[in-house]
């Protein structure tokens, strides 16, 4: 049998056909032609969003060709060596045409590509026209006189030649009317006018998009096409695709608002978002649209890559690029929280520093077409109204849409913030319905990435208390998990970090999630990165973290079985930060943190990121604990090898710390040897182990 390529990994409207080998027997070739003919005819009952009449005619031609092929196959066929070479060549070319037709039919019925195929109806027709006429050419070159065929078969061949030669495939009148409707709707969007729902339903019925899940598939496919068009720098294509995306998104949110029971929004969709606290889109500098290497914050609260904002200032611009606000100062403050997440993301996804700079945006921060931009605002206004005026069913549907939209792009988030969605969500957070509370908290989490969203969430401070309330008393684990992630976002601003720390139940609530046995790694990491952010942004929070019992919880966590390396790395990072303070250092040492850290540092199973945090922790313990800690460390025979391993890995920051530790140990060994093992006596630090 001839092996053909499947359509699963190919680009749409591309036809990578495989030519049969030259030595193929006529029997094998005919069997393969009959098989692929059957596969083509299996498309007959499927829905086609475009060129319905052309498809029907094409399938009729294939049915007639099947009759022809079966007659030849079961007739008196000579052996392959006697069968005319010209006939084999004709059927080989027909096999290639059949493969391409199958690909074309797959594209016409492809899930998620229905609107795209409709808009490209002319191109689809051209493909059908070329392939159908190619069938005529194949049959025309078939050596009828050299093969023993019946008179009926010869007549059928002549009939097929005439029919396929005169093929003039064109989009149907209905296709053209629906396409005109789509472009008219684009025009309405551009003028900020809501289209007539009946007009939109006519379009959706024509292409076979009837459910909420159908819209999701269409959006996913168009998103892939936008990415491809961006790589090709096809501006016109990007603009059209952006408008199509806006159209189908409007349909999903406003027209087909009922969610199928089997399509309940998967909680897994938030997994990557929560584990890292940020989407890849949010790791990009608003100026360069590339992943930030050195994120810094302006006085407006917006984060930029240091090199990009420095160039902006050097060009004479003393304003915030996103807001246009004049700046009283151009002082840049390191955004350690975002930098940590970027580093975690890059390590998790194998992205090297030099590769990050080559990464281009995969989602437009601002839509590439006016229709898309205005449609986004219309959707946001509609959903905001549903939260205020809709019943419980309408509210649930609106919450699901807000949850999905806020995840997809910063533009959607800004539209929803401007429409007043934040205020409504904050009121809904105290709902006794677990589904409503969870979706509202997920929406708040995503909107907390928007700088204006942060401000509206916090308000006069009451918003933070509501989120902390959900953190501690949320009905579902997911709601509490989302609250922890939202605290991470909000804590990226120093003032908010201080306000969060001052809420009595905030840090204890995060520690409770870290300690909880019923929380998975993603939930624990949400809480851990939130705690670390609170420590980085506000030094006064360290004693609150200490008072909440975080140190013993973290040490027990890293000693437990089954936790991910990411959890270990985040835990060691917090312990390293706590060890910068004398009371934190004492707490770590008192609970065996020094010995445990040396053990983790020497483990071959932990990542380089975890080892780096271990080095920083050891360095801070030595600086604050003095010679007693250094002496205890020097007694471990494995420590020098572990430190030299870190030093050889080439990371600048941890390499310097490792070098400093090596120097401290060498100096200690030169000055004294054989000191007693340090212990604690009545809370007083005497020696380290």
UniProtKB/TrEMBL annotation:
One GO term of the biological process aspect: regulation of seed germination
Reaction equation(s) it catalyzes: S-ubiquitinyl-[E2 ubiquitin-conjugating enzyme]-L-cysteine + [acceptor protein]-L-lysine = [E2 ubiquitin-conjugating enzyme]-L-cysteine + N(6)-ubiquitinyl-[acceptor protein]-L-lysine
InterPro entries noted in UniProt: ARM-like, ARM-type_fold, ARM_PUB, Armadillo, PUB12-19-like_N, RING-Ubox_PUB, Ubox_domain, Znf_RING/FYVE/PHD
Superkingdom of origin organism: Eukaryota
Enzyme class: transferase
E.C. code: 2.3.2.27
Single GO MF descriptor: ubiquitin protein ligase activity
SMART domains, per the entry: ARM, Ubox
Keywords: Repeat, Transferase, Ubl conjugation pathway
Renumbered ranges of ARM repeats: 420-462, 549-593
Record-annotated U-box domain positions: 278-352
Pfam families: ARM_PUB, PUB10_N, U-box
Pathway: Protein modification; protein ubiquitination
Protein name per its UniProtKB record: RING-type E3 ubiquitin transferase
Organism: Noccaea caerulescens (Alpine penny-cress)
